[in-house]
Structure formats: structure tokens, C-alpha cells
Amino acid sequence: MELKNKKVAISGGSGFLGNRIVKGLERKGAEVIAPRSKDYDFRRIEDTQSFFEEHTPEVFIHSAALYGGLGIIERIPAEIYDYNMRMMLNIFHASIDWEKEISKIEKMVAIGSACGYPGVLGDNMREELMWNGPVDESVRNYGTIKKLMETTGDVYRKQFGLNTINLPLATLFGEGDTFNPDRSHVPAAIMRKIVEAHQENKPFVELWGVPETVREFIYVGDCAEGIVRAVETFDGLEDCEDQSKYTLNIGTGKGTTIDNLAKTMSEIVGYKGNLKYTGGSPGQLSKALVVDRMKEVLDWYPQTTLREGLKKTIDWYVANKEEADKRT
Q: Cβ distance 133 to 119 under 8 Å?
């Protein structure tokens, strides 16, 4: 797909990842529309239909989501499930001319998550194994919606010819992330604790979970680049017969222990204190994507190393800490 002069709409376009995708699309010459929720609430079918009718996008990237760490997932599981399910279904529904039974747009891009994969896969999260078991209990409300994105795309493709792809992502980090304890993912949550411990000269940092927990992390700038490349070049595999042919993992494929992540951050910050773990539930012990398909299809791999990305993020966070901590 040639993106120059293409009208591309994106939900969550002002968010942490969405903002980077918008910039990547604009560099390609696309006309980008990034509606705010105060103008179009995609949880409401009326707002969603109005958006499609008024702006007539040629491509839609669904990046918006209500998410957070395990704390908020445990506290408001139904609210997260309801919020994300309504948005997804309304956006797919509004992309179709139901009277003519045809798609209104050229391409739908659903931004998924590693949380959508079965918990039993560990670091073997391959596209063709998406339905080889349930998502991990710790992320069931959020992960189930991400898992269903693949099936939603499949049934809309079969009935209406909607060209849609599904892009599960590794855990993001980078400048502009959410550092609010209620909403932050693992990298930002740990980073805030270590930076504050260093600034306040605390003898130790208490981290939730167990040190050997393995997660995969991708720098947000790299992730956005991968997504834009997939919008341009990925429309499914020719040599695959099931619905996974339209799914493409975006990540590094490299798992990192939480302890290694925290120690790397401590070194960058200059923190000399100890790391103590609470032993609380870590969710899945191991979680990482397999990115062989991504490397072959996109002829691309993320260029920012974990340490490089963490250094950029820490420098930005320290310089913008007060404002960053207020972001929800």
C-alpha cells in the first residue's frame, strides 16, 4: 500500500504509541486523522458511525485501549473488558456498509498484544498458536479482547471482504510513557521506583513479583516503525490456510528477566541500593513473542537495544518527572 496522500484514521492517536504511529504515517505523506475521545467516543456506536461518515478514512488503525498494570486489571476487570470490547466491535461495525454488504475502507489494522496468547506458550508465542489454549488468568479481561481481534477480523473478512490484519505487540517502553502506578506497565513502574529511590537516597527498592519473571520489551519508536511497515506491506501470508495468516507479531523476540531489567535501570540511574522482591503473583512466569514471520515479511528488525532505549527513557523521565507522574 502506498501511504502517500492516503487518508489514515487512528484511534488512540494522541497516546503513548499512537502519537509515534501518527508521526511515522506523516513521514510517509499520509493524511492522518487522530480523533479525540471527547469528540468521538468509540464506545458509542453513534459516535463511531458519525466519525466514519464525516471523515471517510481509507485506512483505520485501532490503537486505543484501556489498560494498566495488574493492580488496575484486578480492581476493575469488567470496566476494562467492557470498554475495550465496545470500542473494537463498534469500529469494525462502522467500517462496513451493511446495506451493500461491503467494506467502506481499504484496510483495517487491529493493534493486538502478547497478552492475547495462551499463557502456557511462555516464550513460544507464535502466530499460528494463538488459539492453543486460554489467555493467562492474570490478564483475562484485557487479553481476551486482544485475542478476539483475530477472530473479529476473520469473520468480517469472510462476509464483507474487509482487508484486516492483526498485530500483537510486545510490552512497550519509551519517552512519554505512563508512570502513574495505576496505569503503568512493568518498565515504567520499575523505572519510577528506582529513580525515586536514587533521588531520595533510599537503601532499597521493593519490587512486586519474583526476579526470574521473563518479559519481552520493545522501544516504542521501533514498535511504531514496525506497525507502519506492516500497514504498507502486510496483507496476510499466501502459504497459510487458517486465520493466523493475517496476524503478525511485532517485537524483539528476546525475553528479559525482571531482575535484569531492574539492574540495568539501576546502573543507568546510578542507584547503588538493593532490589527486594515481594514474591507476589507475577502472572505468567515467562512471556515472549516469536518474530520469525515479522523479520521475513517486513525485512526488518527493531534497531534500538534494550539498554539504549532505557537510557533514552530514563533521561527523558528525569527531565520531565513532575509532568510525567501526573499523566493518567
A: yes
pTM more than 0.70: yes
Question: How many CB atoms neighbour CB 289 within 10 A?
Answer: 28
pLDDT digits (tens, 9 = 90+) for 232-256: 999 999 888 888 999 999 999 999 9
Cβ 74 vs Cβ 283: under 8 Å = no
Cα–Cα distance between 21 and 13 in angstroms, integer?
A: 7
37: buried, middle or exposed (CB in 10 Å: 19+, 13-18, 0-12)? middle
**Pair 25, 228: CB distance under 8 Å:** yes
β-pairing verdict for 214-219 and 255-257: antiparallel
Inter-residue long-range contacts of 263-267, CB under 8 Å, 24+ positions, other chains counted = 264/306, 264/307, 264/310, 265/190, 265/191, 265/194, 265/310, 265/314, 266/194
User: What's the grid cell of residue 123?
Assistant: 516464550
**pLDDT the model gives residue 281:** 63
